[in-house]
Amino acid sequence: MAMTLRLDDAEGAALRKRAELEARSMQDIAREAIREYIEHHSRSDLIDSILDRELPRFAEALERLGK
Predict the structure, then answer these.
(1) Angle, to 10 degrees, between the axis of helix 9-22 and the axis of helix 26-54?
(2) Using CA of residue 3, residue 8, residue 37, residue 14, what is the dihedral sign?
(3) Distance of alpha carbon 35 from the chain centroid
(4) What are the residue ranges spanned by the domains of the chain?
């Protein structure tokens, strides 16, 4: 899939500098950042879902531990 990514001047300069420092393409850096973002948020969503489902079962015990 092809897409266009629009960056402001500061973002473009920062991306260019990072790519030069790592001897990688700007596209490669951007793609890695997107993969990391998706992975992080997917994991957070899974944890939130499990907590929403399981936490009520232990609410009383957790309340007692908090005292």
Answers:
(1) 100
(2) positive
(3) 8
(4) 11-65
Backbone angles phi, psi at 10, to 5 degrees: -65, -40
Residues contacting residue 29 through CB under 8 Å, at least 6 positions apart: 15, 18, 19, 22
Taking only the tens place, the pLDDT of each residue in 2-15 is 899 999 999 999 99
> Are 49 and 35 within 8 A, CB to CB?
no
pLDDT at 27 over 90: yes
pLDDT of 25: 97
DSSP state of 23: T
Taking the C-alpha atoms of residue 41 and residue 32, their distance in angstroms, rounded to an integer, is: 14
pLDDT category at 44 given cuts 50, 70, 90 is confident
